[in-house]
Amino acid sequence: MHIVLQIIGWALVVPLVLGLGKAGKFKLTASIEVIAGAGLVWVKEIPAFLVRLIALLELAGVAGIILAPAADQFLGFKWAAIWGVLAAAGLALTMVVAAIMHIVRGEFKYTWKANLSLFAYAAALTGVLAALPSVA
After folding, report:
1. Among 62, 77, 126, 129, fewest CB within 10 Å belongs to which?
2. Which of 83, 34, 76, 80 is nearest to 61 (CA)?
3. Which of 61, 67, 63, 129 is nearest to 95 (CA)?
4. What is the DSSP letter of 18?
């Protein structure tokens, strides 16, 4: 049964890496003007270090959902399993905060699909990783 959970877990990692990995890299490397020009106008209303912090949190979460399960499943480092659960939960929390911010700003009608789908993937991944025997 745990092999099925591992396959499901890796399948859930893919959209999170593609979505949040790309977003985090963009927010970390592009100028604030370029980010705002891409439609993320909220970046002009907060300090630049917060934009970079959000990017680093997204990238750290993405690294965690890749490296921790890989260390557990392929290298046998059972102690790493909980870090994958925490990384996935952190990404889910990040998407909750993002949704709240977009609701407050009146932008949720434009971002709800991305916010909810990435939250759902991260929440599902949290549950799958937590259900693996190495975490218990």
Report:
1. 77
2. 83
3. 61
4. I
Q: How many residues does the chain have?
A: 136
Dihedral class, residue 127 (left if φ above 0, else alpha if ψ from -120 to 50, else beta)? alpha
Distance of CA 54 to the CA centre of its chain: 11
For the segment 112-129, what is each residue's pLDDT rounded down to a tens digit? 999 999 999 999 999 999
The three-state secondary structure class of 77 is coil
Using the structure block, give the residue that is written with the tokens 């963009």. 26
pLDDT tens column, 3-51: 999 999 999 999 999 999 999 999 999 999 999 999 999 999 999 999 9
Q: Where are the domains of the chain?
A: 2-131
